[in-house]
Design brief:
The structure is a homodimer of 201-residue chains.
Chain A: H1 6-15, H2 23-35, H3 38-49, H4 51-54, E1 55-57, E2 64-66, H5 73-76, E3 81-88, H6 91-99, E4 105-109, H7 127-136, E5 141-144, H8 150-163, E6 169-172, H9 188-196
Parallel strand pairs in A: 3-4, 3-5, 5-6
Antiparallel strand pairs in A: 1-2
Helix pairs in contact in A: 1-2
Chain lengths: 201, 201
């Protein structure tokens, strides 16, 4: 005998599929939606309904765009420097970089990182398309903006090899102490990198 | 210039309305839905669409029921003892009590707790209906299963007064040490209550 009506159980189960959402959290979300007026769940329902139909991928950068767009605004905008390309793993990494407000180049989304454990080889990433862009757009600098993880580093290494002796500067994001973190709490690897990358003042 | 397609922003905003979900968490949920196949967001969308239309309230206990049900199974089930009524604040408190598997009485949902700060007076709670049930169902015991908060206690007190001299036993949930919690970490009020309610072994 079910304690809760099936309409509510269905919502709890579907919310429980979200990352990091356990049964208790899913219940809390669902109970909230039951308690508040029906418009909140309707707005969310409609937004979810239109999600996949409303998005597409930029043909050049593979950033997320509206379904009716061919190319991302971050590529077509004349203010963006097409000769500088930040290479990121996922479309969402772009948001983090854009929030800094200090980057005016374009992007290239790989669609993942090389990870033998997960069966992701370099051929399943958009590296061929990146090399093509170097030639097409006369790219001067490739910024490898991948995570500071094993996968991020090995993907960066692989791309560097693929670029070969093309006349393009290849850089990567600086590793070092995050702002606001005390030296004594920094981990050894970060501190080692911060030492290696020390700069004259 | 928006960095993300509006279809995605709409989902992030709607998810951000859930309790305890900030912009970062909402982004994480939305990105997950974008990455996985479209069925996950469709299932959630459909469940949300049907939520409010699919639920109703039991005419007797005010527990959540399917929209096509008049009375909760927890009331109509012949195995449940109608002469014992656990009084709870919200429909979801029933789930917690049912999970114990050790309660066979019925429930009565007040629809809140007395809270002058939030403008909730006793007249907006389903107390009249509770008193009516005492007479209708020949209730022998009322278990006041409200929170151990100021609101919970004052609501319990008010109900006790309303019951007056009707021949019904009024009890409330025991206060004491939670199972698995060390005595030295228990707060003073809990420990005081545990002392007051000490039992012969």
């Amino acid at each position: 005998m079910p304690i809760l009506p099936p309409a509510l159980t269905a919502v709890i189960e579907a919310l429980g599929k979200l990352p990091g959402v356990g049964p208790r959290t899913a219940e809390r979300y669902a109970y909230y939606l039951v308690r508040t007026d029906t418009s909140k769940s309707q707005v969310l329902a409609n937004a979810l309904q239109d999600l996949h139909g409303g998005i597409g991928y930029c043909k050049k950068t593979f950033a997320l765009v509206s379904a009716d767009q061919e190319l991302s605004d971050l590529y077509t905008d004349p203010k963006r420097d097409k000769t500088v390309v930040a290479v990121v793993a996922e479309p969402f990494d772009i948001v983090a970089l854009e929030k800094t407000g200090s980057y005016t180049g374009t992007y290239h989304v790989l669609g993942g990182l090389v990870s033998p454990i997960d069966g992701i080889g370099p051929e399943s990433l958009r590296i061929t398309e990146l090399i093509q862009r170097i030639d097409d757009d006369n790219v001067q600098e490739i910024i490898l903006a991948t995570n500071a993880s094993v996968e991020g580093e090995s993907t960066a290494l692989f791309i560097q090899k693929q670029i070969g002796d093309r006349p393009v500067k290849v850089t990567r994001l600086a590793r070092g102490l995050p702002i606001g973190v005390d030296l004594e709490y920094a981990d050894q690897i970060t501190l080692t990198r911060a030492l290696e990358g020390r700069q004259a003042i």
